């Protein structure tokens, strides 16, 4: 596949806070990525640098083989939709869509019109008077209808209710199938987007913890449940990322795929396996990372304010 984004040793520091810590990353053409992590992990900082809305302290970030900053050739091929997107106070939604249509060469007015109806967006209400959900719909419509070759969604759909979010997911997959492009979804609603994303990127404290295909990630961890003594004997020597216990019953989540011999041992010991969802895996990985930071790291968790990246 063709790489559309290449990041090498990317570091961003805000005074004493290390928001991105020597990040190496490659994003391929025509793939849906999930960029996952806690508040302050560095997700927004990374996307802001890739879209030329922020500067790296050191390292390089190339989009379509070029630096994106003040580069019209690159910027008209990418769309960045943020949760906190701002528009002129007196603007109507149609003004925002018209400006987007002038900027993005692949803009689909037909798709925008369909989404306006589906999201029940009031076009005659000024943007500053829209509800949070309606404002989110404006961003989602621009992100989808732009059909940009790279589209970043930085949680702009959090204001949408469950029905509207499902509309977004359905239309994203439908249009992606017909018009492939690279999509990066930053989300806290991990289980909701789990079936959409083809590759998972987990970032924590400015470092990449995981960058794998979603199908491979699904079998990356297992939770062993049963008698505490038997559970501990089984997980001995394995990388444990979470433990819980209640009386004599223990639940331990371990990394690594289990083979036929492992399953035979589990059965012989009367132990059970509980499924680990993508959301649980991300939570456990970040908790594990926080409990045992990389040796020698001086990273400080990035602040949650917009200006310092999320």
Features of this protein?
single chain, 310 residues, Alpha-Beta Plaits, 2 domains, six-stranded mixed sheet, 13 strands, disordered C terminus
What would you note in describing this structure?
This protein is α/β, with parallel strands linked by helices. It folds into 2 domains: 3-214, Rossmann fold (3-Layer(aba) Sandwich), CATH 3.40.50.300; 220-275, 2-Layer Sandwich (Alpha-Beta Plaits), CATH 3.30.70. 34% of the residues lie in helices and 28% in strands. It has helices at 43-50, 72-75, 93-103, 109-118, 132-145, 162-178, 190-193, 214-218, 228-235, 260-268, 278-291; strands at 3-14, 17-28, 32-36, 58-63, 78-82, 150-154, 182-186, 199-204, 207-213, 221-227, 240-246, 249-255, 272-274. Strands 5-6-7-3-8-9 form a 6-stranded mixed beta sheet, with helices on both faces. It has a 4-stranded antiparallel beta sheet with strand order 11-12-10-13. Strands 2-1-4 form a 3-stranded antiparallel beta sheet, with helices on one face. Strand 8 and strand 9 (207-213) form a beta hairpin. Helix 4 packs antiparallel against helix 5 (132-145). The longest helix has 17 residues, at 162-178. The chain is globular, with a radius of gyration of 22 Å. The two termini are 29 Å apart. Residues 294-310 have low confidence and may be disordered.
């Amino acid at each position: 596949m063709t790489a559309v984004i290449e990041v090498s040793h990317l570091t961003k520091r805000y005074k004493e806070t290390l928001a991105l810590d020597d990040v190496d990353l490659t994003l391929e053409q025509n793939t849906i990525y999930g960029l996952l992590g806690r508040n302050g992990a560095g997700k927004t900082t990374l996307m802001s640098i890739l879209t030329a809305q922020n500067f790296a302290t050191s390292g390089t970030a190339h989009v379509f083989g070029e630096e994106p900053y003040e580069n019209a050739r690159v910027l008209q091929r990418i769309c960045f939709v943020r949760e906190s997107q701002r528009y002129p106070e007196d603007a109507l939604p149609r003004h925002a869509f018209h400006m987007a249509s002038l900027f993005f060469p692949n803009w689909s007015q037909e798709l925008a019109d369909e989404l306006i109806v589906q999201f029940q967006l009031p076009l005659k209400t000024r943007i500053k008077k829209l509800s949070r959900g309606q404002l989110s719909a404006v961003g989602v419509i621009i992100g989808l209808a732009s059909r940009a070759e790279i589209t970043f969604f930085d949680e702009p759909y959090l204001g949408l209710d469950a029905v509207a979010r499902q509309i977004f997911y359905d239309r994203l997959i439908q249009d992606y199938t017909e018009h492939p492009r690279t999509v990066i979804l930053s989300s806290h609603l991990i289980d909701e987007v789990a079936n959409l994303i083809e590759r998972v990127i987990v970032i924590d404290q400015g470092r990449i913890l995981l960058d794998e295909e979603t199908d491979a990630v699904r079998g990356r961890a297992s939770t062993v449940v049963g008698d505490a003594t038997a559970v501990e004997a089984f997980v001995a020597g394995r990388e444990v990322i979470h433990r819980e216990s209640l009386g004599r019953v223990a639940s331990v989540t371990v990394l690594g795929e289990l083979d036929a011999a492992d399953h035979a041992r589990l059965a012989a010991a009367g132990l059970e396996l509980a499924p680990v969802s993508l959301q649980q895996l991300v939570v456990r990985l970040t908790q594990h990372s926080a409990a045992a930071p990389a040796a020698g790291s001086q990273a400080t968790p990035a602040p949650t304010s917009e200006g310092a990246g999320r």
